[in-house]
Specification:
The protein has 246 residues and is α/β, with parallel strands linked by helices. The protein contains nine helices and eleven strands. The radius of gyration is 19 Å and the shape is elongated. The N and C termini lie far apart (47 Å).
Length: 246
């Protein structure tokens, strides 16, 4: 089976990271610019076929019509293994893992992956069922960040949390009613941050297996941020704590 990566930044990041790409499709009449030129150059370096096609062909392949005249055809996304993520970070004093509890919107998943990668997280973990998976929309909404950070797909999130705990991680669940606000929670060191789906939040069983819960302070009339925005705020509090300790 094949997958499509759409948008100039997403295709460019896939090529820069060495992600497997079968061929690149560029809409006829697309004006050259720096991103297009780099895509063509990188493709030529590694021998990836570039084809000029009618724009309507890209429109038909696109999920959201935001391909910007560029698509890449790639194999299905290769998820990372939980054991590999734990092994690769076992000696790190500071490590951040983002766990998403049944987030079904691929746009939100991509935005979370982007924030996680920018914050220096070691992985994003998602459930195998009842969850968005990595596909074209995620590549696009992550701005290509999905090519730079491991994404793990697990059948049982509780067992995954137990494995992280055994590896020395502290697990915090984000919820509206929590043990402490962001500023007072232990948001440092080896941290697994569990984020829930919008509307339902973190499930009861997963929340029960968290070491602590954390909430964001709300000053306005709307009672919460969406999951991608909330993940960014919490992840960068972890980043800030690390800078204080430098």
């Amino acid at each position: 089976m094949s997958n499509v990566i759409e948008g100039r930044n997403a295709v460019l990041e896939a090529l820069r990271s060495g992600s497997p790409v079968r061929r690149i499709l560029i809409a006829e009449g697309t004006k050259p610019n720096q991103a297009i030129e780099e895509i063509l150059s990188l493709a030529q370096e590694v021998g990836i076929s570039v084809q000029s096609v009618a724009r309507k062909k890209l429109d038909a392949l696109s999920d959201r019509g935001a391909h910007q005249g560029v698509m890449a055809e790639a194999p299905e996304f290769a998820y990372a293994l939980l054991s590999d993520v734990i092994e690769q970070s076992e000696v790190a004093k500071r490590s951040l893992i983002i766990v998403l509890d049944h987030v079904t919107d691929p746009g939100n998943l991509g935005a979370v992956i982007r924030s996680a990668e920018v914050a220096g997280a070691d992985a994003v973990v998602i459930p195998r069922d009842r969850s968005a998976g990595v596909g074209p929309v995620v590549f696009k909404s992550s701005a290509g960040a999905v090519a730079h950070i491991p994404v793990v797909q697990e059948t049982n999130l509780v067992r995954a949390l137990d494995a992280f705990k055994e590896a020395g991680y502290w697990v915090g669940g984000a919820t509206a009613v929590a043990d402490s606000m962001l500023w007072d929670a232990p948001m440092d060191g080896r941290l697994v941050l569990v984020m829930g789906a919008e509307g339902t939040g973190v499930s009861r069983l997963v929340l029960k297996n968290c070491d602590f819960t954390v909430a964001l302070p709300v000053a306005g009339q709307v009672d919460s941020l969406n999951v991608a925005q909330a993940t960014s705020v919490l992840a960068f509090e972890w980043v800030r704590r690390g800078r204080i300790g430098e």
